[in-house]
Structures are given as structure tokens and as C-alpha cells.
Design goal:
Blueprint lengths: L3 H31 L8 H11 L5 H21 L3 H20 L5 H23 L12
Helix pairs in contact: 1-2, 1-3, 2-3, 3-4, 4-5
Amino acid sequence: MLTQAHRDLARSYGTLFARIVIGLFFITAGVGKIGSGFGLGAGFAGTVGYIGSVGIPLPEVVAVVAILLEIGGGVGVLLGWYFAEAATALAFVCIFTAIVFHGNVEDPMQRGMFFKNLAIAGGLMYMIAYGAGSGWSYGRRD
């Protein structure tokens, strides 16, 4: 049975842990879209090609916006800076990505990616609803 002390500990350090791993997840995803030399993703050309393959117009512009949202939003969540705005933007990115890029739920790999993105969006929405937590944060936290 969880005591109030356990819940308080989870609110302090669990929320900080969640912010760190979710923030780093998006930062590394954004960096991976910049260049494959980082060893984190397909690089800019691969990202643009994938975005274009689903028929989205101006894939270069969409790739730059995705990079900025992922890195900027990841930093915001990680540091707790403009937290609600950063988490909201990333939740929308996850939902958009799930529907547009992983909507073929007949394919087991795409189904897994679809639900992973929705799960991350759900976690972000939970964090938006209950705040950045009482763990370390920089600047404005609401």
C-alpha cells in the first residue's frame, strides 16, 4: 500500500524523472533529424524523404518545424521552462505523427509506433494537467 510519503516522493522525483526522459527523447529525435552523423536518426535528407513519402507538401519546411518543435519542446519539458506550452506542442506532434505517419495499424510495427506516440501524448497531457512537479526546474513552470 502506498503511503502519502510515497506519493510525495513520486511527485517530487517521479515527475522530474518523467521530464528528463521525455525531454531527452524529443531532443535526441530532433537532433537525429538534423544529421545522421550524430548516430541518432536518418538525418535531414532521410527525414525530408520520409515526410515527402506520405504526400505532405513542403517536406523541407515541415522537417525544420519538426526539428524546432522537438528540440525546443524537449528542452522546455526537461527544464520545466514554459512547461505547459512545450508539453502541449509535443502532445500535438505525437498525435499528428501517430495519425499521419503510423496510421497503418494493420502493420504490427506501425501499430506499435502508433500506440507509442499516443502513449507519450497521454503522458504529456497528464503532466500538463498536474504540472511540472516539484522536482528541479528552471524558470516558469506552469
